[in-house]
Amino acid sequence: MSVTIEVPNTPVRPHKRGVNWEKWGWIYMRVSGIALIVLIFGHLFVNLMVGDGVKAIDFAFVAGKLTNPFWIVWDTAMLWLALIHGANGMRTIVNDYATRERTRMILHGALVVSTVALLILGTLTIYAFDPCPAGSPAEHLPSFCGVAG
Ligand code: HEM
To answer: Name one GO cellular component term (predicted).
Structure first.
């Protein structure tokens, strides 16, 4: 008696024609992973180890960083690359474990909604950030705000 074993990596929807999004998603995970090693460890090193390290982190520290175009670009890249990386990774996990089409649709929908909301909120935080909010005590603000205190 012979037993036929199903190919374990058979895709749910076999790729036919046009752009192979699954392949580009696979490549994105590797390329963004490499970029994230630099971005995340650079971020942790500068925030936690350089100068006074973790003790220096307060509102003024963050406000100072977010007025520097270098850190604005760094933080934006980290936000977008990590969020899309995480969401695409979760999409893979949903595809691996959710077998019912309806469950998949709900989970994928939740992923898209939460990812888009966080991308908008995070990007607004970086670009609409006010380092010198009116009426704040001078000791909490960066020195360039010019508030006597
Ligand atoms: C040092 C930075 C990172 C590197 C080098 C990295 C690398 C990778 C790689 C290569 C994969 C694909 C694995 C596979 O297909 O089998 C992956 C999957 C994944 N990553 Fe990352 N990643 C990093 C940071 C992150 C961050 C910050 C998040 C969350 C926001 C995240 C969430 C995920 C998830 C959810 C998966 C899917 C796991 C799975 O399929 O079982 N990763 N990562």
So the answer is: membrane
pLDDT tens for each residue of 55-89: 989 999 999 999 999 999 999 999 999 999 999 99
Q: Is residue 5 part of a domain?
A: no
Number of domains in the chain: 1
Q: What is the mean pLDDT of residues 129-144?
A: 88
pLDDT tier at 149 (50, 70, 90 boundaries)?
very low
Average pLDDT, the chain: 91
pLDDT beyond 50 at 122 = yes
Residue 140 falls inside a structural domain: no
Distance CA(120)–CA(83), nearest Å, equals: 11
Instruction: From the CA of 34, give the closest atom in ligand 1.
Output: 5
Phi, psi (deg, nearest 5) at residue 65: -65, -40
Neighbours of 78 (CB within 10 A): 19
The reply to whether 100 falls in a domain is yes
Whether 85 is in a domain gets the answer yes
Is 126:76 a contact under the CB 8 Å cutoff? yes
Pocket of ligand 1 (CB under 6 A): 29-30, 33, 36-37, 40, 82, 85-86, 89-90, 92-93
Domain with 109 in it: 31-132
